[in-house]
Each structure stands twice: as C-alpha cells, then as structure tokens.
Amino acid sequence: MERLAWMRWPQRLKRLFNIDIELCGECGGAVKVTSSIEDRVVIGKILAPLQGKDTSVATNLLPASRAPPADLFG
C-alpha cells in the first residue's frame, strides 16, 4: 500500500487554489498563523450575518455602468 505524504493546510491551499497564506501580500515577508477557529458552532455564528448577502463581488469597487455600444450596422 502506498503511503501518502502529510501536508499542512497552508500547503494544501497553495497547491489546490494557488493561495499562499504564508507570505504577506504587502511586503512578501513570512506570515505566522497564531490561531484558527475550527469549532463549527463558532464558525456558524461568525458567518450567520453574511447569509443571503452576495460576497462574491464587491459592488462598491465596480466602475459605473455605461450604455451598450451603438449598433453600427442596424
């Protein structure tokens, strides 16, 4: 039977999603994780206010919308 190598969760994030949480996005220095929340009840309480909100797009960062281009051949 083949033995799989153990990987820390920051390494998994980097491998699967190309997210490197061990490097600072500002200065490029090393980041140390000092704590993590793993209790499902606590996580649920933290995320409850976000339910029903679309957090996938920061709408306040989008440029103002404009009219579609005029139909040149219509």
Structure description:
This protein is mainly α and 74 residues long. The chain has a domain at 1-47. 23% of the residues lie in helices and 0% in strands. It has helices spanning 9-17, 40-47. The longest helix has 9 residues, at 9-17. The protein is extended, with a radius of gyration of 21 Å.
Helix content: 10-25%
Oligomer: single chain
Straight-line N-to-C gap = 67 Å
Number of beta-strand segments: 0
Shape assignment: extended
Integer average pLDDT: 79
Main sheet characteristics: none
- Based on CA atoms alone, the radius of gyration comes out at 21 Å
Q: What is the H/E string?
A: HH
Poorly predicted parts: none
- Percentage of β-strand residues: under 5%
Class inferred from helices and paired strands: mainly alpha
What's the total helix number? 2
Strand-helix topology:
Elements: H1 9-17, H2 40-47
Summarize the structure.
23% of the residues lie in helices and 0% in strands.
Annotation keywords:
74 residues, mainly alpha, 2 helices, extended
